[in-house]
């Protein structure tokens, strides 16, 4: 059986993607990874995710039972436990692309923010305020830790359900909404938050990216990854 498509190495931990069904051979493979590399732990990541917090299911395979890491992106450091908060290295380029558009003095809302990846990047680009909202208490904790780690005191973390607490933020210049599974509901909230002349960065799941981009009058769209047979996670840049 083929257990993996690729191995991700985050800090000193290796993560192997494995299918829903696997046998004990995976533990032998994990031990081989550990002995041939400088990692201290090997974890397996299953495809399933917890719906509310959007965290993946992980299985410890070898080495230390350690899951807290320091992850680096474009000169920014993030402290997180990948078993406790949403994490995807595939979003690295989008963190860079979206946050490179930020103008000095912008007010930004990062919805469904996880450990604050978009939030910290945008704050370091000159935003005056970045609201960072997530329902997961661990996401709130790690966002605060990452503010301190990167000295981005212009981030305001909010612990709560975005669909219920968005009114606390007032109007903003830019909304980042990385919740592709509920993109239509997220778009409704985003339009209520975004000023005229602002922009919404909406993540969506679709089988027809180009048609969706036309429907939302997006100025730009990009396929981020495949999420299933003929299904894609895409990002749409939507002017208001």
Architecture overview:
With 240 residues, the protein is α/β, with parallel strands linked by helices. It folds into two domains: 7-66, no CATH class; 89-239, Vaccinia Virus protein VP39 (Rossmann fold, 3-Layer(aba) Sandwich), CATH 3.40.50. 27% of the residues lie in helices and 38% in strands. The chain is built from seven helices and 13 strands. The protein has a seven-stranded mixed β-sheet, with helices on both faces. Strands 1-2-3-4 form a four-stranded mixed β-sheet. It has a two-stranded antiparallel ribbon with strand order 5-6. α2 (92-99) runs parallel beside α3 (117-124). The chain starts with 6 loop residues before the first strand and ends with a strand.
Features:
13 strands, single chain, alpha/beta, 240 residues, seven-stranded mixed beta sheet, globular, Rossmann fold
In short:
With 240 residues, this protein is of the alpha/beta class. Helices cover 27% and strands 38% of the residues.
**CATH H-level name of the largest domain... which superfamily?**
Vaccinia Virus protein VP39
Q: Given the structure, what is the number of helices?
A: 7
Provide the β-strand percentage band.
Answer: 35-45%
Envelope shape? globular
